[in-house]
Amino acid sequence: MEAIMKVKLPVNKNEKKTGKVIDLTYQGNGVIKIDHYPIFIPNALPGEKITFVVTKVTRHFAWGRVLSWQKKSSDRVELKDQRYLQTGITPLGNLNYEAQLRFKQHQIKELLDKAHLDDIKVLPTMGMAKPYRYRNKAQVPVKLIRGQLETGFYRRGSHDLVPIEDYLIQDPVIDATILAVRNQLRKYHIQPYDERTGRGCIRTVMVRRGYYSHEVMVVLVTNTKKLPHAADITAALVEQVPDLKTVVQNINDQKTNRLLGTTNHTLFGPGTIQDRLLGIKFTISPLSFYQVNPQQTERLYQTAIANAGLDGSQTVIDAYCGIGTISLAVAQHAKKVYGVEIVPEAIADAKENAKNNHIDNTEFVVGKAEEQMAKWQKAGLKPDVLIVDPPRKGLGEELIEAAGQMAVPKIIYVSCNPATLVRDIQRFMDQGYHVTKPIQPVDQFPQTTHVESVTVLERTEK
Ligand code: SAH
Hints:
This protein is α+β, with helices and mostly antiparallel strands. It has helices at 83-86, 97-114, 172-187, 230-240, 294-308, 325-331, 344-356, 369-378, 397-406, 418-430, and strands at 16-20, 23-24, 30-34, 37-41, 49-57, 62-71, 137-145, 148-154, 161-163, 202-209, 216-222, 244-251, 263-268, 273-277, 280-284, 315-319, 336-341, 362-366, 385-388, 410-415, 433-435, 440-442, 452-459.
Protein backbone atom coordinates (compact mmCIF):
# COMPACT_ATOMS: atom_id res chain seq x y z
CA MET A 1 0.00 0.00 0.00
CA GLU A 2 2.73 2.45 1.10
CA ALA A 3 4.74 1.74 -2.03
CA ILE A 4 1.82 2.51 -4.35
CA MET A 5 1.11 5.83 -2.65
CA LYS A 6 4.61 7.09 -3.35
CA VAL A 7 4.63 10.89 -3.40
CA LYS A 8 7.27 13.12 -4.90
CA LEU A 9 9.07 14.97 -2.12
CA PRO A 10 11.18 18.08 -2.83
CA VAL A 11 14.33 16.55 -1.31
CA ASN A 12 15.99 13.15 -1.10
CA LYS A 13 18.08 11.69 1.66
CA ASN A 14 21.82 12.51 1.36
CA GLU A 15 21.10 15.23 -1.18
CA LYS A 16 23.10 18.47 -0.85
CA LYS A 17 21.21 21.76 -1.07
CA THR A 18 21.76 25.45 -0.52
CA GLY A 19 19.16 27.72 1.04
CA LYS A 20 18.24 30.57 3.30
CA VAL A 21 17.14 29.93 6.89
CA ILE A 22 13.80 31.66 7.43
CA ASP A 23 12.78 30.71 10.96
CA LEU A 24 13.79 29.09 14.24
CA THR A 25 11.51 26.43 15.74
CA TYR A 26 10.56 26.40 19.40
CA GLN A 27 13.20 23.69 19.82
CA GLY A 28 15.86 26.00 18.42
CA ASN A 29 16.31 24.40 14.99
CA GLY A 30 16.67 26.47 11.83
CA VAL A 31 13.98 26.12 9.14
CA ILE A 32 14.48 26.15 5.36
CA LYS A 33 11.46 25.68 3.12
CA ILE A 34 11.41 24.25 -0.38
CA ASP A 35 7.95 24.52 -2.01
CA HIS A 36 6.37 24.93 1.47
CA TYR A 37 8.08 21.72 2.63
CA PRO A 38 10.10 22.40 5.81
CA ILE A 39 13.59 21.13 6.52
CA PHE A 40 14.76 21.40 10.13
CA ILE A 41 18.45 22.05 10.59
CA PRO A 42 20.24 22.17 13.95
CA ASN A 43 22.67 25.07 14.52
CA ALA A 44 21.28 27.14 11.63
CA LEU A 45 19.95 30.62 12.42
CA PRO A 46 17.39 32.84 10.68
CA GLY A 47 18.97 34.99 7.97
CA GLU A 48 21.84 32.57 7.37
CA LYS A 49 22.62 31.15 3.94
CA ILE A 50 23.89 27.61 4.19
CA THR A 51 24.75 24.48 2.29
CA PHE A 52 23.31 21.44 3.99
CA VAL A 53 22.89 17.73 3.51
CA VAL A 54 19.49 16.08 3.98
CA THR A 55 19.83 13.52 6.78
CA LYS A 56 16.26 12.26 7.13
CA VAL A 57 13.13 12.53 5.01
CA THR A 58 9.51 12.06 6.03
CA ARG A 59 6.31 12.85 4.16
CA HIS A 60 5.76 16.21 5.87
CA PHE A 61 9.26 17.42 6.75
CA ALA A 62 12.95 16.57 6.60
CA TRP A 63 16.06 17.00 8.74
CA GLY A 64 19.35 18.39 7.55
CA ARG A 65 22.91 19.08 8.75
CA VAL A 66 24.90 22.22 7.94
CA LEU A 67 27.92 21.57 5.71
CA SER A 68 29.03 25.20 5.27
CA TRP A 69 27.86 28.76 5.76
CA GLN A 70 27.76 31.26 2.89
CA LYS A 71 26.39 33.94 5.18
CA LYS A 72 26.25 33.92 8.98
CA SER A 73 23.78 35.69 11.25
CA SER A 74 24.99 38.73 13.19
CA ASP A 75 23.19 37.16 16.19
CA ARG A 76 25.45 34.10 16.08
CA VAL A 77 27.75 33.28 18.99
CA GLU A 78 30.63 31.03 18.04
CA LEU A 79 30.77 28.20 20.56
CA LYS A 80 34.13 26.83 21.58
CA ASP A 81 32.57 23.46 22.19
CA GLN A 82 29.69 22.25 19.98
CA ARG A 83 28.79 19.53 22.46
CA TYR A 84 26.81 22.03 24.52
CA LEU A 85 24.33 22.48 21.68
CA GLN A 86 24.07 18.74 21.11
CA THR A 87 23.64 17.79 24.76
CA GLY A 88 20.79 20.16 25.30
CA ILE A 89 22.56 22.08 28.09
CA THR A 90 22.53 25.24 25.98
CA PRO A 91 20.35 24.50 22.93
CA LEU A 92 20.19 28.27 22.22
CA GLY A 93 23.85 28.85 23.05
CA ASN A 94 24.62 29.75 19.41
CA LEU A 95 22.35 32.82 19.67
CA ASN A 96 23.44 35.95 21.54
CA TYR A 97 21.44 36.71 24.65
CA GLU A 98 19.52 39.70 23.27
CA ALA A 99 18.39 37.52 20.36
CA GLN A 100 17.40 34.72 22.75
CA LEU A 101 15.17 37.16 24.64
CA ARG A 102 13.58 38.35 21.38
CA PHE A 103 13.11 34.71 20.29
CA LYS A 104 11.15 33.98 23.49
CA GLN A 105 8.94 37.07 23.14
CA HIS A 106 8.33 36.12 19.50
CA GLN A 107 7.38 32.52 20.41
CA ILE A 108 4.42 33.74 22.44
CA LYS A 109 3.45 36.42 19.91
CA GLU A 110 3.48 33.95 17.03
CA LEU A 111 1.22 31.46 18.85
CA LEU A 112 -1.21 34.25 19.76
CA ASP A 113 -1.31 35.45 16.14
CA LYS A 114 -1.97 31.93 14.89
CA ALA A 115 -4.93 31.73 17.30
CA HIS A 116 -6.25 35.07 15.95
CA LEU A 117 -5.44 36.75 19.25
CA ASP A 118 -3.15 39.31 17.64
CA ASP A 119 -4.61 42.15 19.75
CA ILE A 120 -2.86 40.70 22.82
CA LYS A 121 0.53 42.36 23.28
CA VAL A 122 3.71 40.68 24.50
CA LEU A 123 6.37 42.74 26.32
CA PRO A 124 10.11 42.26 25.80
CA THR A 125 11.43 39.31 27.81
CA MET A 126 12.87 40.18 31.23
CA GLY A 127 16.39 38.78 31.02
CA MET A 128 19.29 38.23 33.42
CA ALA A 129 22.35 40.44 33.67
CA LYS A 130 24.54 37.33 33.73
CA PRO A 131 22.71 34.57 31.85
CA TYR A 132 25.08 31.75 32.85
CA ARG A 133 25.75 29.70 36.02
CA TYR A 134 22.28 30.42 37.37
CA ARG A 135 20.92 26.94 38.14
CA ASN A 136 20.66 25.95 41.81
CA LYS A 137 20.13 22.30 40.97
CA ALA A 138 21.80 19.62 38.85
CA GLN A 139 20.79 16.07 38.05
CA VAL A 140 23.49 14.22 36.18
CA PRO A 141 23.52 10.63 35.00
CA VAL A 142 26.41 8.34 35.94
CA LYS A 143 27.67 5.80 33.42
CA LEU A 144 30.55 3.52 32.69
CA ILE A 145 32.39 4.61 29.55
CA ARG A 146 35.37 2.52 28.43
CA GLY A 147 35.74 1.11 31.90
CA GLN A 148 35.67 4.49 33.65
CA LEU A 149 32.87 5.99 35.75
CA GLU A 150 31.75 9.27 34.15
CA THR A 151 29.30 12.04 34.96
CA GLY A 152 27.90 14.32 32.28
CA PHE A 153 24.90 14.96 30.15
CA TYR A 154 22.91 12.95 27.63
CA ARG A 155 23.16 13.78 23.95
CA ARG A 156 19.82 15.30 22.91
CA GLY A 157 17.12 12.69 22.39
CA SER A 158 19.33 9.79 23.48
CA HIS A 159 20.85 8.10 26.51
CA ASP A 160 24.44 8.46 25.25
CA LEU A 161 26.42 10.11 28.00
CA VAL A 162 28.79 12.92 27.07
CA PRO A 163 31.27 13.40 29.94
CA ILE A 164 31.22 17.06 31.02
CA GLU A 165 32.90 18.93 33.87
CA ASP A 166 31.73 22.49 33.21
CA TYR A 167 27.96 22.66 32.76
CA LEU A 168 27.96 26.41 31.93
CA ILE A 169 24.50 27.15 33.35
CA GLN A 170 24.91 25.67 36.84
CA ASP A 171 26.21 27.29 40.02
CA PRO A 172 29.99 26.57 39.81
CA VAL A 173 29.96 25.14 43.35
CA ILE A 174 27.52 22.54 42.06
CA ASP A 175 29.85 21.64 39.18
CA ALA A 176 32.73 21.24 41.65
CA THR A 177 30.55 19.13 43.96
CA ILE A 178 29.65 16.78 41.11
CA LEU A 179 33.36 16.24 40.42
CA ALA A 180 34.07 15.58 44.10
CA VAL A 181 31.27 12.98 44.12
CA ARG A 182 32.49 11.45 40.86
CA ASN A 183 36.02 11.10 42.23
CA GLN A 184 34.82 9.34 45.38
CA LEU A 185 32.61 6.98 43.37
CA ARG A 186 35.65 6.16 41.23
CA LYS A 187 37.90 5.71 44.25
CA TYR A 188 35.58 3.14 45.82
CA HIS A 189 34.80 1.42 42.51
CA ILE A 190 31.04 1.98 42.79
CA GLN A 191 29.42 0.34 39.76
CA PRO A 192 27.33 2.64 37.56
CA TYR A 193 23.84 1.41 36.75
CA ASP A 194 23.41 -0.16 33.32
CA GLU A 195 19.99 0.56 31.79
CA ARG A 196 20.10 -2.48 29.52
CA THR A 197 20.91 -5.11 32.13
CA GLY A 198 19.28 -3.37 35.09
CA ARG A 199 22.47 -4.08 37.08
CA GLY A 200 24.90 -1.79 38.86
CA CYS A 201 24.51 0.66 41.73
CA ILE A 202 24.77 4.41 41.13
CA ARG A 203 22.33 5.97 38.64
CA THR A 204 22.22 9.71 39.14
CA VAL A 205 23.88 12.40 41.21
CA MET A 206 21.68 15.29 42.23
CA VAL A 207 23.10 18.43 43.81
CA ARG A 208 21.22 21.46 45.08
CA ARG A 209 22.66 24.66 46.51
CA GLY A 210 20.81 27.45 48.26
CA TYR A 211 21.37 30.77 46.48
CA TYR A 212 21.27 32.81 49.68
CA SER A 213 22.07 30.13 52.27
CA HIS A 214 24.86 28.45 50.26
CA GLU A 215 23.78 25.15 51.84
CA VAL A 216 24.60 22.16 49.63
CA MET A 217 22.58 18.93 49.33
CA VAL A 218 24.00 15.84 47.62
CA VAL A 219 21.60 13.06 46.63
CA LEU A 220 23.08 9.77 45.45
CA VAL A 221 20.43 7.87 43.52
CA THR A 222 21.09 4.13 43.60
CA ASN A 223 19.54 1.13 41.94
CA THR A 224 20.51 -1.06 44.91
CA LYS A 225 19.43 -0.82 48.55
CA LYS A 226 23.07 -0.84 49.60
CA LEU A 227 25.57 1.82 48.63
CA PRO A 228 29.00 0.29 49.31
CA HIS A 229 31.37 2.56 51.29
CA ALA A 230 28.55 5.02 51.96
CA ALA A 231 30.23 6.19 55.18
CA ASP A 232 33.65 6.71 53.55
CA ILE A 233 32.18 8.56 50.58
CA THR A 234 30.08 10.78 52.83
CA ALA A 235 33.03 11.56 55.13
CA ALA A 236 35.20 12.56 52.16
CA LEU A 237 32.46 14.81 50.75
CA VAL A 238 31.92 16.50 54.12
CA GLU A 239 35.62 17.31 54.11
CA GLN A 240 35.82 18.49 50.50
CA VAL A 241 32.55 20.30 49.74
CA PRO A 242 32.12 23.73 51.34
CA ASP A 243 28.81 24.25 53.20
CA LEU A 244 27.75 20.64 52.61
CA LYS A 245 24.64 20.42 54.75
CA THR A 246 23.25 17.01 53.93
CA VAL A 247 23.91 13.80 51.98
CA VAL A 248 20.97 11.57 51.07
CA GLN A 249 20.79 8.18 49.39
CA ASN A 250 17.68 7.85 47.24
CA ILE A 251 16.73 4.39 46.05
CA ASN A 252 15.27 3.99 42.58
CA ASP A 253 15.15 0.30 41.61
CA GLN A 254 12.58 0.74 38.85
CA LYS A 255 13.33 0.41 35.14
CA THR A 256 12.16 3.91 34.40
CA ASN A 257 13.24 7.28 33.05
CA ARG A 258 12.21 8.87 36.32
CA LEU A 259 15.33 10.04 38.06
CA LEU A 260 14.39 9.68 41.70
CA GLY A 261 12.70 6.88 43.61
CA THR A 262 10.49 7.34 46.64
CA THR A 263 12.80 6.01 49.41
CA ASN A 264 15.38 8.30 51.01
CA HIS A 265 18.11 7.39 53.54
CA THR A 266 19.84 10.33 55.10
CA LEU A 267 23.57 9.64 55.30
CA PHE A 268 24.56 12.97 56.78
CA GLY A 269 22.80 16.08 58.14
CA PRO A 270 19.07 16.83 58.32
CA GLY A 271 18.05 15.46 54.89
CA THR A 272 16.96 18.92 53.76
CA ILE A 273 18.48 22.30 52.99
CA GLN A 274 17.10 25.76 53.51
CA ASP A 275 16.97 28.73 51.22
CA ARG A 276 15.09 31.99 50.89
CA LEU A 277 12.90 33.51 48.20
CA LEU A 278 11.66 37.09 48.58
CA GLY A 279 12.84 36.96 52.21
CA ILE A 280 10.83 33.83 53.07
CA LYS A 281 12.63 30.74 54.37
CA PHE A 282 12.01 27.47 52.55
CA THR A 283 12.94 23.93 53.52
CA ILE A 284 13.77 21.88 50.45
CA SER A 285 13.77 18.08 50.49
CA PRO A 286 15.21 15.83 47.77
CA LEU A 287 11.85 15.17 46.12
CA SER A 288 10.31 18.60 46.28
CA PHE A 289 9.93 20.86 43.28
CA TYR A 290 11.84 24.09 43.74
CA GLN A 291 12.38 26.69 41.02
CA VAL A 292 15.87 26.32 39.55
CA ASN A 293 16.67 29.96 38.80
CA PRO A 294 16.35 31.78 42.14
CA GLN A 295 17.15 35.29 40.86
CA GLN A 296 14.62 35.18 38.04
CA THR A 297 12.04 33.37 40.17
CA GLU A 298 12.00 36.37 42.50
CA ARG A 299 11.36 38.65 39.51
CA LEU A 300 8.70 36.28 38.16
CA TYR A 301 6.86 36.18 41.49
CA GLN A 302 7.21 39.93 41.97
CA THR A 303 5.65 40.43 38.54
CA ALA A 304 2.81 38.04 39.41
CA ILE A 305 2.22 39.67 42.81
CA ALA A 306 2.36 43.23 41.43
CA ASN A 307 -0.21 42.27 38.78
CA ALA A 308 -2.51 40.72 41.37
CA GLY A 309 -3.04 44.23 42.83
CA LEU A 310 -3.28 43.07 46.45
CA ASP A 311 -3.90 45.42 49.39
CA GLY A 312 -4.30 42.94 52.23
CA SER A 313 -8.05 42.49 51.91
CA GLN A 314 -8.18 39.80 49.21
CA THR A 315 -8.75 36.06 49.22
CA VAL A 316 -6.33 34.31 46.88
CA ILE A 317 -6.13 30.77 45.49
CA ASP A 318 -2.69 29.49 44.45
CA ALA A 319 -3.32 26.43 42.29
CA TYR A 320 -0.38 24.10 41.53
CA CYS A 321 1.33 25.59 44.58
CA GLY A 322 4.25 23.16 45.04
CA ILE A 323 5.93 23.80 48.41
CA GLY A 324 3.96 27.04 48.73
CA THR A 325 6.51 29.48 47.34
CA ILE A 326 3.98 31.77 45.65
CA SER A 327 1.33 31.29 48.37
CA LEU A 328 3.68 32.38 51.15
CA ALA A 329 5.04 35.32 49.16
CA VAL A 330 1.46 36.44 48.48
CA ALA A 331 0.24 35.84 52.06
CA GLN A 332 1.91 39.03 53.29
CA HIS A 333 -0.27 41.03 50.89
CA ALA A 334 -3.57 39.13 51.24
CA LYS A 335 -6.23 38.31 53.82
CA LYS A 336 -6.18 34.58 53.12
CA VAL A 337 -4.41 32.27 50.68
CA TYR A 338 -5.55 28.77 49.70
CA GLY A 339 -2.99 26.49 48.03
CA VAL A 340 -3.60 23.20 46.23
CA GLU A 341 -1.01 20.77 44.91
CA ILE A 342 -1.03 17.12 43.83
CA VAL A 343 2.17 15.94 45.59
CA PRO A 344 1.49 15.20 49.29
CA GLU A 345 5.14 15.75 50.33
CA ALA A 346 5.09 19.19 48.76
CA ILE A 347 1.98 20.12 50.76
CA ALA A 348 3.65 18.85 53.94
CA ASP A 349 6.60 21.13 53.10
CA ALA A 350 4.26 24.04 52.35
CA LYS A 351 2.60 23.70 55.79
CA GLU A 352 6.00 23.45 57.48
CA ASN A 353 7.23 26.50 55.56
CA ALA A 354 4.20 28.52 56.63
CA LYS A 355 4.86 27.61 60.26
CA ASN A 356 8.59 28.37 60.09
CA ASN A 357 7.84 31.82 58.71
CA HIS A 358 5.05 32.50 61.24
CA ILE A 359 2.55 32.91 58.41
CA ASP A 360 -0.92 31.92 59.64
CA ASN A 361 -3.28 33.03 56.87
CA THR A 362 -2.63 30.13 54.49
CA GLU A 363 -4.41 26.81 54.04
CA PHE A 364 -2.88 24.01 51.97
CA VAL A 365 -4.72 21.03 50.49
CA VAL A 366 -3.46 17.92 48.67
CA GLY A 367 -5.42 17.29 45.48
CA LYS A 368 -5.83 17.84 41.79
CA ALA A 369 -6.20 21.56 41.23
CA GLU A 370 -9.13 21.05 38.83
CA GLU A 371 -11.04 18.86 41.33
CA GLN A 372 -10.26 21.06 44.32
CA MET A 373 -11.42 24.17 42.46
CA ALA A 374 -14.77 22.51 41.79
CA LYS A 375 -14.99 21.60 45.52
CA TRP A 376 -14.18 25.13 46.62
CA GLN A 377 -16.76 26.44 44.21
CA LYS A 378 -19.45 24.13 45.66
CA ALA A 379 -18.41 25.15 49.17
CA GLY A 380 -19.11 28.77 48.20
CA LEU A 381 -15.55 30.09 48.31
CA LYS A 382 -15.31 33.46 46.57
CA PRO A 383 -11.68 34.23 45.75
CA ASP A 384 -10.66 37.67 44.49
CA VAL A 385 -7.59 36.40 42.68
CA LEU A 386 -6.66 33.00 41.27
CA ILE A 387 -2.98 32.36 40.62
CA VAL A 388 -2.13 29.33 38.48
CA ASP A 389 1.36 27.93 37.79
CA PRO A 390 0.69 24.62 36.03
CA PRO A 391 3.19 22.17 34.51
CA ARG A 392 3.79 22.16 30.74
CA LYS A 393 0.49 20.50 29.89
CA GLY A 394 -1.37 23.57 31.13
CA LEU A 395 -4.68 23.79 32.99
CA GLY A 396 -7.34 21.15 33.37
CA GLU A 397 -10.54 22.30 31.65
CA GLU A 398 -12.60 21.80 34.81
CA LEU A 399 -10.40 24.33 36.58
CA ILE A 400 -11.19 26.97 33.97
CA GLU A 401 -14.91 26.16 34.17
CA ALA A 402 -14.88 26.31 37.98
CA ALA A 403 -13.10 29.68 37.85
CA GLY A 404 -15.79 30.93 35.49
CA GLN A 405 -18.58 29.66 37.73
CA MET A 406 -16.96 31.20 40.80
CA ALA A 407 -16.68 34.40 38.74
CA VAL A 408 -13.15 35.01 40.07
CA PRO A 409 -12.50 38.65 39.06
CA LYS A 410 -8.79 38.23 38.32
CA ILE A 411 -6.52 35.44 37.19
CA ILE A 412 -2.73 35.51 37.14
CA TYR A 413 -1.42 32.80 34.85
CA VAL A 414 2.24 31.86 35.30
CA SER A 415 3.05 29.67 32.30
CA CYS A 416 6.06 27.60 31.30
CA ASN A 417 4.59 26.61 27.92
CA PRO A 418 3.23 29.24 25.50
CA ALA A 419 1.31 26.64 23.46
CA THR A 420 -0.89 25.56 26.37
CA LEU A 421 -1.06 29.16 27.62
CA VAL A 422 -2.65 30.28 24.35
CA ARG A 423 -5.05 27.31 24.38
CA ASP A 424 -6.07 28.15 27.96
CA ILE A 425 -6.49 31.88 27.20
CA GLN A 426 -9.06 30.87 24.58
CA ARG A 427 -10.85 28.66 27.09
CA PHE A 428 -10.88 31.50 29.63
CA MET A 429 -12.35 33.78 26.95
CA ASP A 430 -15.23 31.32 26.60
CA GLN A 431 -15.83 31.90 30.31
CA GLY A 432 -16.00 35.67 29.87
CA TYR A 433 -12.35 36.55 30.60
CA HIS A 434 -10.01 38.84 28.68
CA VAL A 435 -6.30 39.43 28.78
CA THR A 436 -6.09 42.94 30.24
CA LYS A 437 -2.34 43.59 30.24
CA PRO A 438 0.49 42.79 27.86
CA ILE A 439 1.97 39.36 28.58
CA GLN A 440 5.32 39.56 30.41
CA PRO A 441 7.86 36.86 29.51
CA VAL A 442 10.51 36.30 32.20
CA ASP A 443 13.60 34.35 31.22
CA GLN A 444 13.91 31.58 33.78
CA PHE A 445 16.16 29.38 31.63
CA PRO A 446 18.76 31.39 29.68
CA GLN A 447 20.56 29.46 26.90
CA THR A 448 17.63 27.04 26.64
CA THR A 449 14.41 27.19 24.62
CA HIS A 450 12.08 27.34 27.66
CA VAL A 451 9.67 30.28 27.72
CA GLU A 452 8.10 31.42 31.01
CA SER A 453 5.56 34.24 31.23
CA VAL A 454 2.94 36.02 33.34
CA THR A 455 -0.54 36.76 31.93
CA VAL A 456 -3.34 38.75 33.58
CA LEU A 457 -6.93 37.79 32.78
CA GLU A 458 -9.93 39.68 34.08
CA ARG A 459 -13.63 39.17 33.89
CA THR A 460 -14.89 42.14 31.99
CA GLU A 461 -18.21 42.98 30.49
CA LYS A 462 -17.71 43.32 26.78
N1 SAH B 1 4.13 27.27 42.11
C1 SAH B 1 5.17 26.33 42.48
C2 SAH B 1 5.15 25.03 41.68
C3 SAH B 1 4.98 25.14 40.19
S1 SAH B 1 5.36 23.68 39.28
C4 SAH B 1 6.51 26.99 42.40
O1 SAH B 1 6.65 28.01 41.73
O2 SAH B 1 7.44 26.51 43.04
C5 SAH B 1 3.83 22.92 39.03
C6 SAH B 1 3.34 22.13 40.20
O3 SAH B 1 2.08 21.56 39.84
C7 SAH B 1 4.22 20.96 40.63
O4 SAH B 1 4.50 21.10 41.99
C8 SAH B 1 3.33 19.70 40.35
O5 SAH B 1 3.52 18.70 41.32
C9 SAH B 1 1.95 20.27 40.45
N2 SAH B 1 0.85 19.61 39.73
C10 SAH B 1 0.90 18.92 38.56
N3 SAH B 1 -0.32 18.53 38.17
C11 SAH B 1 -1.19 18.99 39.12
C12 SAH B 1 -2.62 18.92 39.27
N4 SAH B 1 -3.38 18.31 38.38
N5 SAH B 1 -3.14 19.51 40.35
C13 SAH B 1 -2.37 20.14 41.27
N6 SAH B 1 -1.04 20.24 41.17
C14 SAH B 1 -0.44 19.66 40.11
